[in-house]
Prior knowledge:
Number of strands: 0
Helix content: over 70%
Amino acid sequence: MKKEIKKRRMGNYFSDVLQLLSGNTLTQLIRILISPIISRIYSPLTFGLMQNFSAITNTLSAIFALRYEPTVVLPKDDDKAAVQLIISLMSIVIFSTVTTPILIIYKTPISNLLNSKDIANFLWLAPILAAFVAYINTSKYWYTRKRKFKRISRIQVMNQLISEGSTLGLGIFASPNVVSMILGRLLGNSISFLTLGVFYFYEDKRIIFDNFRWAEIYQGIKRYKNYPLFDIWGSFLQYLLLYLPGLMLSGYFSPEIAGYYSFANNILRMPNQIISNSIGSVFFERGVKAKYDKRLHELVLMTVQILVAIGFVPFLVVSIYGRDLFTSIFGANWGEAGFYSQLLSLWAFNQFVTSPLGYLTYILEKNRLRLIYFFVNLFLRSGSFIIGGYFQNPTIGIILLGATSVMSSSIFTYRLMHLSGVRLKDIGRIVGNVVIYSTPFIFILFFSKNLLSVNFSKVDRFFSLFQTLNLSRYHFFTFNLITVVILANWIWQYLFNKSFHKCFHGVIKK
């Protein structure tokens, strides 16, 4: 009986994950299809400038709601959850209104500090775009609570399609500069904002208006006061840490170097946005219930098992073939970005596995631990690029960034898993199984790198099509090999790794 209940829970868990995963997959598929075109229209310098603008926008979006948006999921009662939604939306309106004139007044010193004078006249758009992003993120928590994962997926797809399509169109028919990138992103988020507003009006206006009472709002603010007191600083630091490498590379070297890093980082984060974030959203909702049912450790182990098995070989591919892949797919200008992706691949894999588990800080209410982790990371990442800047070598800074980030993230995540009841030997068993069952594919990847490194300069008629796509015979064979290895590894894990098979058994039955 217990096994049947566990299978049913597991099946429901993966059913919700797949609903989000379908939207995230389409969203990232749009980016994957358009990125090779955009990378040939926009220069690395433009990507670097957009990275600096996004650093301001996304950091503001993280703090506009005072971090009350995760509290929408936590209450058992829907009325109390609606109060938390109201608090979040009110905070967004107030702080976006206050921030806009500040950026208008101080646009010149801010742009000079970032070595990005081209974005000075458009900084006033940052709080507006940040308000749209914060509103959309808050709505995701509300619909996560209501388990309307299909709606979240559709909004994500629409946002990405409009943003990327507008950026591409403006780059072709207007001008391939940072303004076109900003306007493309603003258009996608504004339409998503209006769409969610329509859903609120027709479906949720009654529960929102019925709970708009100042006494309840005050109680909600007081009940979850640790979020604006502690978690807001954690979220601010989280986004600062995300964009700090690009900002420091821009300051110490140039926006073009920052553009290479930003592009590589965005590509490496795609698996996170396709798979890891989808699992994380469902993990948060299920984790709250699992905590009350005393089975949180089971959910944690199941999540780790899946992410390690899915991500291990693909990120290994990047560490070996990164430069070749970037040059072939995105153009000859992006070879340096491919090299950076090789240096950062271990960190990217670490983030892929640990990102969903970060929700344990909310589930276990360990906001202070999260804040300490971010302060430690701030010190380590700043130190990495100060050292790189001292030696005038961005590669040194990026290597130190990857190494220190993997170390700090692993320690922090293990601490959270330990608090949820997971033992170190359970984690070791999971990782060990995946590595053992991936061994044949690891050897294939390492040996093929040398076997395929031969002279294919004389390309015959069969490969004339790939010449027009900037693909040599070497790249053609490499792409096919990588695709076969990754797919074969996933099938192999499912067939022979029993714990991985059990994790997916529920969704197959579904």
